[in-house]
Each structure stands twice: as C-alpha cells, then as structure tokens.
Specification:
By secondary structure, this protein is α/β, with parallel strands linked by helices. The chain has eleven helices and twelve strands. Helix 4 packs across helix 5 and helix 8 packs parallel to helix 10.
Amino acid sequence: MLHLPRRPRRNRRTAAIREMTQETSLSLSSLIFPLFVLEGTGVKSEVKSMPGIYRFSLDTLLEEIREVADLGIQAICLFPNYSEDKKDKRATESYREDTLYLNALKEIKDKFPDLTLMTDIAMDPYSSDGHDGYVENGEIVNDVSVEILGKMALAQAKAGADILGPSDMMDGRVGYIRNFLDGEGHTNVSIMSYTAKYASAFYGPFRDALDSAPRFGDKKTYQMSPANAREALVEAQLDFDEGADFLMVKPALPYLDIIKMLHDNFDIPIAAYNVSGEYAMIKAAAQNGWIEGERAMLESLMSIRRAGAKAILTYFAKEFALAQNG
C-alpha cells in the first residue's frame, strides 16, 4: 500500500462529506431573472432562439412574476420590446409618461412590493438607430447620450425601480445618473453598472427577443474588446469612484477571469450576466442529447459564483428554482 499522508479523495468519499467541504454555494438569492415585456394583451410569445423564454404582455407578465415569486425568485430585471413606430433618434419613449415600460414597472412594484426590481438603461430598445447611445453623422455622441440616459434613469426610479442597470457603456454615465438621482431625492435607488460589457457574439438571441440590433455598424466604439482585461480595471475604477453599488461583467462564461479580477480588486459586490447566447448554447446541445442540460446549467452557474459574482442575471433562474423545488 502506498504511504500517502494526504489523500484528497477522503473528502469526496460520501455525499455528506462532499457537501460539508463544498467551497462555493449557489442559491436562488444570488439569481436575477431577466424578463421581456411588450405591448398587447394575452401575449406569451416564445423567443425562438431561447427555448423556454418568452415575451409577455403586461397581463401575462404579472402572472409569470407571480409564478416565479412563488418559486422563491427574489429579483427580476425587466427589458422592453417596442414596435418600430415608437422609436426615434433620442429614445424619447424611454422617459415618456404613461409608456409601456414605466407602467409595467409601476404595476409590478404595486403588486409585488417585496420583489427586487431591476431595470435596463440604454437607448437601443427605443432608438431608431438601434444603438445604445445617440447617433449623429454616423457616430455615437457620448455626452448627449448621457443626458438622455439620465432622464431615463429618473423616470425608472420614479416608477419604483430598486436597481438601475446602465448597460450602455457611455463614459461618465454612472456619476451623472447618481448625481441626477440624488438631486431628485432618489438616494436609495441602487446602480448596478454594466462595467465590463464586451463586444460579444453571445448577444444574438437577446437582440432577437427585443428586435434591437443596430441599424448600421456595430457597438465596438463603446463596448470593450474581448482581447482586453486590464481595461476592465480602468472601467471598474471609474464606475466605483462615480458611485456604482455593483460592478457587472457581461457576458459571464467567456469572461470568468474578468469577474475574478474585479472581485479581487473591489470591495463592492460583483455581478455577472449569463447572457442569452450562453443560455441558448446549453439549451440547443441538451435538446440534441449532446449534454445533460440540468447538470450543464448548474455547472455553469457555479463557475460564475466561484469566480466571484455575488449576483447573476440568468435566463436559467426559473429552471434552477424548479429544480430546487423538486
């Protein structure tokens, strides 16, 4: 017999011991469920590229939220799907009183006051150009964009949002939004900044869900290059100094190193967005019998938590909740 003073397998011998020595935990309290709202009534339309994920009209959305809240999901992030006739260059529908998105936020908060309600701040769902910022002569104009985003943020805060998610990647928008909110008395509304949002190929199904692809060019002048890591520290330091309450990395799985780097360098919670393409890949492979879908889901989410994310936006949240509830 070998003389081995350490045998790591002893700590894997039984399920009870494995659970006792588990280093990373994953629970529903860490997950935020993204949901899509569109105009109409009685609508529940599946996103073809995201099996099990739907666009909802407000009435069916409230039914879905009741269901996921009963499953134990404590936080959602709402995204709007607007028809082309509601879009313009300045995204004015995003802060117009009585618009679909703001009405949905108010209704959700009224009916589910204990649910953490997160929003999206970017121009692309409302922009006739399909970009996250204001376009002039084919270029994204940063400072004009930030002013528009500030109006959007204030409107969402007034509608009852708990956490605002600036996903636009404009320079200086966190500080502008924070000052704007504080000046209007919304000091308790949090900002989860999309700090390191990469120009990724993994967003395709999301743009399908919202019909929000750019009408020209790409988003590489404001989203980060997948080749860059240290640049994320620059973005994170700026957002931290400007008053962000969370720093987010998007996507999650190809950027676990970035999640870990921000976790190691900043003493505020790090979030990650397990994006639509990551979800769709697992779903497609599972439907083809190439992988075990539930195990792949759990392993992926655990890897994001292990890297240091305290909060995870994931389309798997409901599926995870159903698995936890047996």
